[in-house]
Amino acid sequence: MTDRTSDTASAIPAPPLAERLKAQAPYWTVPALAVLGLVLIADVSTWGTLTLAGLAMGMLIFIMASGLTLVFGLMDVLNFGHGAFISIGAFVGATVLLALGAWTGSDSLALNLGAVLLAIVAAMLATGGLGWFFERVIVKPVYGAHLKQILVTMGGLIVAEELIHLIWGPNQIPLPRPEVLKGSWVVGDVIVEKYRVLAVVLGAAIFVGLRWALVHTKLGLLIRAGVENGEMVEALGYRVRRLFVLVFVAGSALAGLGGVMWGLYDEIITAQMGLNILVLVFIVVIIGGLGSVEGCFIGALLVGLMANYTGFLAPKVALGSNILLMVVILMWRPRGLLPAGKG
Amino acid sequence: MLRTLLSEDFPRSRALTAVVLLIVVGLALAPFAFPGIRSLNTAATICIFIVLVASYDLLLGYTGIVSFAHTMFFGIGAYGVALALKAFPASWGAVALGAGAGLVLAMALALVIGLFALRVQAIFFAMVTLAVASAFLILASQLSGITGGEDGLTYRVPRELSPAFKLISAKVMDVRVDGRVVSYYLIFGSALALVLGLLRVVNSPFGRVLQAIRENEFRAEAIGYRTAFYRTAATCLSAGAAALAGVLMALWTKYTGPDTTLSLSIMIDILLMVVIGGMGTIYGAVVGATLFVLAKNYLQVLMASAAETTAGVPLLSELVSPDRWLLWLGILFVLSVYFFPAGIVGRLRGRV
Amino acid sequence: MADLLRLEGVHTHIGQYHILQGVDLVVPEGELTMLLGRNGAGKTTTLRTVMGMWRASAGELGFAGTDLKPLATPDIARLGVGYVPENMGVFAALTVRENMILAARDGAMDEGRLDWIFSLFPALKKFWGLPAGNLSGGQKQMLSIARAMIEPRRLILIDEPSKGLAPAIVDALIEAMRELKRTATTILMVEQNFRMAQALGDGVAVMDDGRVVHAGRMADLAADPDLQARLLGLSLGAHQ
Q: What residues form DSSP beta bridges with C157?
């Protein structure tokens, strides 16, 4: 009865073409938007510059949003405090970078990147630690109560912003990029900003790394299973709570990393930047589908491209265009592009 | 008669009754009891915020919906009147037109948002409202041709509300009863009416269904209530009341701008007031708004002098500096959510 | 035969609802005990209380001498209790293989056991590398049971495995369960399908309104149509 040598692929009927297309559609949205942008902008070199800018921005948003989507997907916790991690990461990183002025001012790529790396590490340690504190003290007591979570994490965000004012003062802090990362290359007619290339590379690396960890490690397996059905994972003998703390801390650290990178992208940091970016992060998380790193990635690229295209075509409605994007996608897929969570 | 007026929703606690009475009487007599521009301004602001926060309580405390778009409706009402008074000569007709337009737009927008919320998970709603409110804020700042951009709009109000107008030629209790006083009583009266109206709404059968939905939406749906309808209706009512608060604001300050109506910090203030005051009580809005506005205006003075006296001690001086007042409020807010979920009103009523 | 699982006077409240109102139940080691009763009697709640998903508000809950009441679900699972829930709890986005890896907990899956499982459920081998969401209802149920079988467990709780499945699949399940029984694993199974219950049960307990109203041997119950009618409102032949 059992034929153990049977070819598995041929024994299972393939799903109909329509179904397969439907499942793959979300992946095509990014190229589709890029093409739409090309049509509307008409000029290839401008489009090229804007697309690169959009991808870079999208990557940075992805870095910050990935943690939030996993935290929500895994444990149903909506953390407004995530914005605080972004801001604090930016400020800690900035402090390190400004202190390493000698390194960032030099012409050596190694020293420049070294300074950025140190800033990132410092930011991630600070926000990771803060994330741990946040989870234990602020979030844990209100598990399961969405309303209270929103209020309490919002309160945490307010307090964190004020603490930034306390420690670093009320003003914006300009954050110049390290020497080697300033400026751009010109490829054909397309302006390629050096820093944006770094952002794209870093973002892609983190995406690949996260995806690898989720698919090829036991921990990643647990997270993916937990996003679907945390109770069943517990019934299999795993302490999901510990898993959650880990994901929360990792997400907070990523937010800090994103904050530093964003600060360098804008070349200025303020205490409110976290809250402002949080709006974009929310849009990305909603578009992508809660709990899905892939969806988050696609959503972030869409938002980045959209912001840059409309920034060029119709600057006044830039943020509105992203909300429109969100509404359109939700009308098409009410749970987001690639929702991973509980049904 | 008091029963009908309050829709049978009494303070239910001696301490609370005393506090509410104090507030109402204080506000009623403000122009005479606390003469001076600054105190009258504080009183008017309190009236306006009481309405704004109470309308938010309808949504948050009674229906259990978290929305960050409330300041958007506030702003729509204010800008409605502002634009009307800018475009047309300052008359009551213009005010009515502006207020009406603002009210209709706010409720229509609330309807759209409410319907949209049905298509998506409940938890998305908070995030979506944050995004929409931010977009609206940016829009208002950018369409400077119409809205005056970052600087906002200034305009004239109807003659009866301006300081030049004298209602009673003689002074009453040493106070000139001019347009400003008239203006104040318009604000006070409207606010009183709106709050009583909200009390009526939350104590009606409609209000009870809202509370049932807040407690357990599945159950309410199972019993047969179309929760979608009720939630949308609550959103619209709440938005309408907020817009009317905006109208009052526009009339009082004769200035409307993104920073006084649409900013996120006002939204945060509303959240603070409703939670610290006590969610789901309406009285919480009264107490919370009063406390908050008084603290904002007068506590900061206190903090400033405290900062001066402690100038020697580095960290301490920083901590009590009036710029830090939001820090302490934020901490108080977080503590309230944990330890006093029923707010001040709950505490006074003997429940935590 | 020792009692592996023992419930005495267990009460469970869910919110304001008093679901279990004093459940007395013993599950002898090495046997398959059937838990029968109509909808809403509290059968699923009993299993979930044992598994720690609901807190028992009163009573004694002992597993091989350990008090289960204060323990959290993961700790109960680590004592050797397996759980096959009513909705199967299969992770649709994960492959069949990944589902099984999770169930194997500490290390690699035992080859011998895996072969044994494949012999009982060939479909699992067929779909090994594919998302579990692609499986049919019956296949998902098999996966869910396979997860409980991949490691030796001291006690397996199974909630309505035949629910919504075609009779032919139910037959396959009964075969698989008989195999499992041969390994002398203790099983507590909730079922509404009396045919399955009769085929597999050694002991039986019938619940109604949050209490166990009858406990005894399945053979005795099967031989007594009047008792069946009284307890279950049906008789052997009528229920499929």
A: C83, C188
